[in-house]
Design goal:
- The protein is of the alpha+beta class.
- The chain folds into 3 domains: about 1-110, Beta-Lactamase (2-Layer Sandwich), CATH 3.30.450; about 145-280, 2-Layer Sandwich (Beta-Lactamase), CATH 3.30.450; about 280-410, 2-Layer Sandwich (Beta-Lactamase), CATH 3.30.450.20.
- The chain has 14 helices and 16 strands.
- The model is unreliable at about 125-130 (pLDDT under 50).
Length: about 400
């Protein structure tokens, strides 16, 4: 994190952020829409005119939400930002959090690194220097993530392939069409050849580059290696970047087997959770996820008439009060609201007391006003912070009428 000029924790659902590391140039994110603020920053002249469109597109909330599903890796953008001494190259990279609802946005100043390689390569013209920056420097900066880079001249069909795990001199120049044919025959699983060809054929690269309307575009191809044994997943990320009248095409490759395994594990975990919730729905007629820090809730399963009454209400305290006023016996409301309120749940729920419960009489849908059934509501601790203070809880409600009747008969 020390090499970053700014680090932001981004809520991908609410479009707001928390600054984990502030920018030294004085720009600070505010409480409102992060993507809106970044668009304003771009249009204010802080971002180079040739990079503004790509910057705005990359930082839109919709793009950040979908980038991980499309790419399966860490989306990144190289752009120029205004500084006291002119324009400086910056690298922006998104890293998805484990919860899948948020991400960390890293911003690094990589201008000095780019300049150093430019000098080393000895490019003569400004166009050649910029071309070298886009090709060589993206590899130099991202070598810890990507393993290969192929720079393609779509007009001539020539390509420059580099193995980024080897010294900078370890590169080869050849015909891109032959490169693709060799990859298909030796390095791509037969079932994935169609996907590989659709994204990476010279014809596709050429047509996409010629028809590029924006300044920046990414396409991602995921495919399997044909090796025997455990499946190995590879990613080829095609980056189209407009540089004046021409469009540069760079293809960055990496092995994403570990990420795919982690993704599959997350999918299985979500499916398991969904199955558990589905199974519990036969036991509990209502289930809610409660955010005790922000006094909000999200229904998982709920009765239709309750959902109709609550409508767009998202504040948990208000929803509990509305529910009590409309569905709970007048003699039981005070006790219900004493137990099921934010302050009591924050005070009582701990790892050594993981739940609180209350029983009450509820008017069931479609029944007479004096027809009541017994319900047991339970709030179960789901997540605590480092100080053992509760952050989230799961609220479940179960019909206990038969149990109450059996207990009465036994007595």
């Amino acid at each position: 994190m020390d090499s970053c000029r700014m680090v932001l924790h981004v809520d991908l659902l609410q479009d707001y952020c928390t600054a984990m590391k502030s920018s030294s140039d004085g720009w600070q994110p505010e409480e409102n829409s992060l993507s809106g603020q970044l668009e304003q920053l771009a249009r204010s002249g802080a971002i180079h005119p040739q990079d503004q469109a790509a910057f705005i597109a990359f930082t839109r909330l919709e793009h950040m939400r979908s980038a991980f599903r499309q790419a399966g890796g860490r989306p990144s953008l190289l752009y120029r930002r205004r500084a006291a001494d002119g324009w400086r190259w910056n690298l922006m990279e998104l890293v998805l959090d484990r919860d899948g609802r948020s991400a960390v946005l890293f911003v690094k100043d990589v201008h000095d690194a780019l300049t150093a390689v430019q000098v080393r390569e000895g490019r003569d013209t400004p166009e050649q220097q910029l071309y070298a920056q886009r090709a060589m420097e993206m590899a130099a900066i991202l070598h810890s993530r990507f393993k290969t880079m192929n720079t393609v001249d779509v007009e001539s069909g020539r390509c420059q392939f580099m193995d980024l795990t080897q010294p900078a001199s370890a590169e080869s120049i050849g015909d891109y069409g032959l490169f693709v044919q060799n990859a298909i025959s030796s390095h791509v699983h037969p079932d994935d050849v169609g996907t590989f060809w659709k994204t990476l054929s010279l014809e596709h690269l050429r047509n996409t580059a010629r028809g590029l309307d924006e300044d920046y575009k990414e396409e991602v191809c995921l495919y399997r290696r044909p090796d025997e044994g455990p499946v190995r997943w590879m990613e080829q990320r095609v980056i189209y970047s407009r540089q004046g009248e021409r469009v540069a095409v760079h293809i960055l490759g990496q092995d994403i087997t570990r990420e795919k395994c982690q993704e599959e594990a997350r999918v299985r975990e979500l499916e398991d959770r969904a199955n558990i919730i589905s199974s519990l729905s036969t036991l509990f007629f209502s289930t809610y996820y409660m955010d005790l820090e922000h006094d909000t809730f999200r229904p998982v399963t709920q009765l239709r008439h309750v959902g109709d009454l609550l409508g767009e209400v998202v504040q948990c305290s208000a929803a509990l009060q509305i529910y009590a006023n409309h569905f709970i016996h007048p003699e039981d409301r005070a006790e219900y609201l004493r137990v099921m309120n934010m302050q009591n749940l924050r005070q009582k729920l701990r790892w050594w007391q993981p739940y609180v419960a209350v029983e009450y009489r509820k008017l069931w849908e479609g029944e007479e006003p004096d027809s009541w059934e017994w319900v047991r509501a339970t709030a179960v601790l789901a997540l605590s912070d480092a100080d053992d203070m509760p952050k989230t809880a799961v609220y479940v409600a179960q019909n206990m009428t038969d149990s109450q009747h059996k207990n009465g008969e036994a007595k």
